[in-house]
Amino acid sequence: DVQLQALGEGWRRRGGSLRLSCQASGRAPTKYGVGWFRQAPGNEREFVAAVSWSDGNTRYADSVKGRFTVSRDNAKNTVYLQMNSLKVEDTAVYYCAADSQLPAASMYDYWGQGTQVTVSS
Fold first, then answer.
1. Is residue 105 within 8 Å of residue 71, measured between CB atoms?
2. How confident is the model over 46-75, as pLDDT tens digits?
3. DSSP state of 105
C-alpha cells in the first residue's frame, strides 16, 4: 500500500501564504497522481488541486485558481501545495490522496491523515 503523510499545518492571517507537503512512501511511488482535498466543519470534502506524477500536469478547483500551486518532486516522492493570498474560507482540514488526478474523492484509494489550515481575518 501507499502511505501518505501531510505536513504543514498552520495558522495565517488573510492574505498570507502557507505551503503543505505530502510525502508518499510504501510499496511504490504513486502511479498516476496526487490530489489535495479539504473539508471545513459541516461541509463535504472538496477537491482543491491535483498533479500528475509522470508529467506534472495540474488541475485546480475554481476557488483556488491563481492562488494555489500544486507541484511534485519525483526524487523525494513529495507533492507540495503552495497556498498564497489565503482567504478565511480556505480554513479547513487539508488531505492529500493518491492515486489519481481526478477531482473526485471517490477516485482516490489512499489518504493522508489531514492537516489543519486556519486563516483569520
1. no
2. 999 999 988 899 999 999 999 999 999 988
3. G
